Automatic annotation (TrEMBL), chain A:
<dbReference type="Pfam" id="PF00005">
    <property type="entry name" value="ABC_tran"/>
</dbReference>
<feature type="domain" description="ABC transporter">
    <location>
        <begin position="5"/>
        <end position="239"/>
    </location>
</feature>
<dbReference type="GO" id="GO:0016787">
    <property type="term" value="F:hydrolase activity"/>
</dbReference>
<keyword id="KW-0067">ATP-binding</keyword>
<dbReference type="InterPro" id="IPR030679">
    <property type="entry name" value="ABC_ATPase_HisP-typ"/>
</dbReference>
<dbReference type="InterPro" id="IPR017871">
    <property type="entry name" value="ABC_transporter-like_CS"/>
</dbReference>
<protein>
    <submittedName>
        <fullName>Glutamine transport ATP-binding protein GlnQ</fullName>
        <ecNumber>3.6.3.-</ecNumber>
    </submittedName>
</protein>
<dbReference type="GO" id="GO:0005524">
    <property type="term" value="F:ATP binding"/>
</dbReference>
<dbReference type="InterPro" id="IPR050086">
    <property type="entry name" value="MetN_ABC_transporter-like"/>
</dbReference>
UniProtKB/TrEMBL annotation, chain B:
<dbReference type="InterPro" id="IPR043429">
    <property type="entry name" value="ArtM/GltK/GlnP/TcyL/YhdX-like"/>
</dbReference>
<feature type="transmembrane region" description="Helical">
    <location>
        <begin position="356"/>
        <end position="380"/>
    </location>
</feature>
<keyword id="KW-1133">Transmembrane helix</keyword>
<keyword id="KW-0732">Signal</keyword>
<keyword id="KW-0813">Transport</keyword>
<dbReference type="InterPro" id="IPR035906">
    <property type="entry name" value="MetI-like_sf"/>
</dbReference>
<dbReference type="InterPro" id="IPR001638">
    <property type="entry name" value="Solute-binding_3/MltF_N"/>
</dbReference>
<keyword id="KW-0472">Membrane</keyword>
<feature type="domain" description="ABC transmembrane type-1">
    <location>
        <begin position="287"/>
        <end position="476"/>
    </location>
</feature>
């Protein structure tokens, strides 16, 4: 089995401040990788390098065989295959819910407007928001917005989904719906890389948990290994704090 | 990554188009004609030598003489009435071929102009308001004297300024200068003898307090060493009309009759309605010119401004530098300076004439465009960065993300600024009267110089501007409702 994502010795610095200090990671097809760790550990930055929202200082990133560090790579082509969900949803406020979902496939000539609408309605049904198709994003709750954002990312039929703290900006009672949508996606076999503080989700859904601290991957393994028997002292300390509140 | 260069290419295209407009209009002036064709400038009002008749035609000793000479010597010309000082500079910069504007021949001027045969004797006199009690130049110490920019009279006044100890202030046309003295804003005005006497005869309430000084003569002028053929034609024609009595008839016609014979009587000017009726065609012409300048100015400035504004946010250091430099320069320059630079300054550098209307439009495009660029850049920057990230993460190229996601949100924020800028543009067109465009403000100046109805005419002009601005605001609100909320 070939890896969907291969990262080798990745470094990223803002001026003198190095935030990624040599990351190595492979993600296989259909795998769900959950990245956890304290704030400022570099996990969100790392996730953003995977679709080139952050430029890297050195290292290698291969996604679906495309070399992201090579300037000659058409990044737009690569991104079509990678869906991204943001902490603050970033829905387009001037467009309706359905227009948000179908914008990219129509603009990029992937689908006719009619076909895109059919697909858009399917995806909205999948995330439980078909009745909101004509609403504007401002009329939705946070959880609803995030589910629309997931539908929007899925409309390009990506083979990988990146989630950047998708539930951190939500009211607690909204978190469940979003996690359920993500759980369904994982069950369908989507390759997912998720940055989250939802330890329950990590335990239940992750094939592998990756622990970040100080710009390094300190520990990784199955949820049982990482949560029940962490080896790295930073991981032990972190898990002790978040699991035993 | 390739796509951001498309914006640069588009920018280059617009700049090329603007330059093309200049070149096109410039070549347009040299229309093929059998008879030689010249562009000749004159003062806006200098009765009895040049002033506008009731029908809007320019008449006066200079005008009738030029017409007679052109007919006799077989040349055609386009007349450009503009403030004397701008006209005189325009001849030197190559914008005009010649000037006939009651221009006194002086040794200083002879260094840069070639004059034709002197055609009218003149001297410089000073006049004060009878109410002021001023009867001699000796009473002027510490007082302010009104002068007309760039004239021989102004130069003469400056030469005696130390002796009499007065301060000076400048005006661009004779009528405004007379009124400043009549209203007591200045103590006396210096002006050429025949012109001042003619104005007083026609009802300007001033009293002459000096004998003619610095006797001189008027001459037709071209830039030194240029247009010698035109100068020769003028001299030959002048000699002929002097000999056959045409010249004397012209002089007698204007000096023997009141200005009202040509320009309409004061009675007709006593009511607003009468003024409107009498000057209907001129007002309509002025409004049309103002609206043309405004509408085309807004269209070009918006294209230019949006483009330069977008360049400021594109992730490219060169584009950003170019954009901020353009905004810095054209927002920093006063509109009037920019207009003079393009209309009078540039032709002396490039050697091609620019029609006033093209110079005016380019001025508006650059100046208003720079303001538009500044708020376009600001509006685009105020859109949350997450919007661009979300759009790009879907695989949209930068340009599509800009057009479909960032610009619709940014432009909505900018709509109030656009409406504001449109109103400013309409008002700013009035400044272009200085380069001789007969838009509404210049129409007002010209009508007043004929009928001296300052209050009524400016009141009418002000009302017309307010009506236009109201209509424009309604239009903008309608557009906002129609396009903004969607």
């Amino acid at each position: 089995m070939t890896a969907k994502v291969t990262v080798k010795d990745l470094h990223k610095a803002y001026g003198d401040n190095e935030v990624l200090k040599g990351i190595n990671l492979e993600v296989q097809e259909n795998e769900v990788v959950v990245m956890i760790g304290p704030s400022g550990s570099g996990k969100s930055t790392f996730l953003r390098t995977l679709n080139n929202l952050e430029a890297v200082t050195s290292g290698e990133i291969l996604i679906n065989g495309y070399n992201l560090v090579d300037k000659k790579t058409d990044i737009n082509k690569v991104r079509e295959n990678i869906g991204m969900v943001f902490q603050h949803f970033n829905l387009f406020p001037h467009l309706s819910v359905l227009e948000n979902v179908i914008l990219a496939p129509v603009e990029l000539g992937k689908l006719s407007k009619e076909d895109a609408k059919t697909l858009g309605m399917q995806l909205l049904t999948q995330v439980g928001l078909a009745d909101k198709a004509d609403a504007k994003p401002t009329q939705l709750s946070g959880g609803q917005k995030q589910r629309v954002a997931i539908a929007r990312a899925l409309a390009m039929k990506p083979s990988i989904m990146l989630f950047d703290e998708p539930t951190s900006a939500l009211d607690p009672e909204m978190v469940g719906d979003v996690l359920q949508v993500m759980r369904d996606l994982a069950e369908e076999g989507m390759t997912m890389i998720v940055v989250t503080h939802e330890m329950g989700f990590a335990k239940q859904v992750a094939d592998r948990v990756v622990f970040f601290a100080d710009g390094y991957i300190r520990e990784q393994g199955t949820p049982e290994e990482v949560f029940n028997n962490p080896q790295d002292p930073r991981a032990q300390d972190f898990l002790n704090k978040v699991l035993n509140v | 990554m390739m796509k951001k260069h498309t914006w640069l290419k588009f920018g280059t295209l617009i700049v090329t188009m603007l330059l093309g407009l200049v070149v096109f209009s410039a070549t347009n002036v040299h229309a093929d004609k059998k008879e030689p064709h010249y562009v000749i400038t004159t003062d806006t009002t200098y009765a009895p030598f040049e002033f506008q008749a009731q029908n809007g035609q320019y008449v006066g000793i200079d005008m009738d003489m030029l017409r007679a000479i052109a007919k006799r010597e077989h040349f055609t010309y386009k007349l450009v009435p503009i403030a004397f000082n701008s006209g005189a500079q325009g001849v030197l910069s190559g914008q005009f071929d010649a000037i006939i504007a009651g221009m006194t021949i002086t040794p200083e001027r002879q260094q840069v102009y070639d004059f034709g045969t002197p055609y009218y004797k003149t001297g410089i006199i000073a006049a004060a308001s009878p109410k002021s009690g001023i009867t001699s130049l000796n009473q002027l110490r510490g007082k302010t004297v009104a002068l007309k920019t760039g004239t021989g009279s102004a130069q003469y006044a400056l030469s005696i300024q130390k002796k009499y100890g007065f301060k000076v202030t400048y005006f661009n046309d004779s009528n405004t200068m007379y009124n400043a003295v009549a209203l007591g804003n200045a103590a006396v005005a210096f002006e050429d003898d025949p012109v001042m006497k003619y104005a007083i005869k026609n009802g300007i309430k001033l009293k002459i307090i000096t004998k003619p000084a610095n006797a001189g003569q008027y001459g037709f002028a071209v830039k030194k060493g240029q247009n010698q053929e035109l100068l020769a034609k003028f001299n030959a024609g002048y000699a002929a009309i002097k000999k056959d009595g045409t010249y004397d008839k012209i002089v007698a016609k204007y000096l023997g009759a009141k200005e009202s014979t040509f320009a309409g009587s004061a009675k007709e000017n006593n009511s607003l309605i009468g003024l409107l009726k009498q000057n209907k065609d001129q007002f309509i012409g002025g409004i049309i010119k103002t609206l043309q300048l405004t509408v085309f100015g807004i269209i070009f400035a918006t294209i230019f401004g949006v483009l330069i504004g977008v360049l400021a946010v594109v992730p490219n250091k060169f584009a950003y530098g170019l954009s901020s430099t353009i905004i810095y320069i054209f927002r920093g320059l006063p509109l009037l300076v920019l207009a003079f630079f393009i209309y009078i300054g540039l032709p002396s550098l490039t050697g091609t004439k620019i029609p006033a209307i093209a110079a005016g439009l380019i001025t508006l495009t650059l100046n208003e465009g720079a303001y538009i660029a500044a708020f376009v850049a600001g509006g685009l920057k105020s859109v949350d960065v997450g919007q661009m990230e979300a759009a790009r993460s879907l695989g949209l190229p930068y340009r599509k993300a800009m057009l479909k996601v960032i610009m619709p949100q940014g432009i909505k924020l900018m709509i109030p600024s656009f409406v504001n800028q449109f109103i400013i543009t309409l008002k700013d067109t009035s400044i272009l009267s200085a380069i001789g465009i007969i838009e509404l403000t210049q129409t007002g100046t010209v009508i007043i110089s004929r009928n001296s109805q300052g209050f009524r005419v400016w009141f009418l002009v002000a009302m017309m501007y307010l009506i236009m601005i109201t209509l424009l605001t309604f239009l903008a609100k309608w557009a906002d409702k129609k396009f903004g909320n969607n």
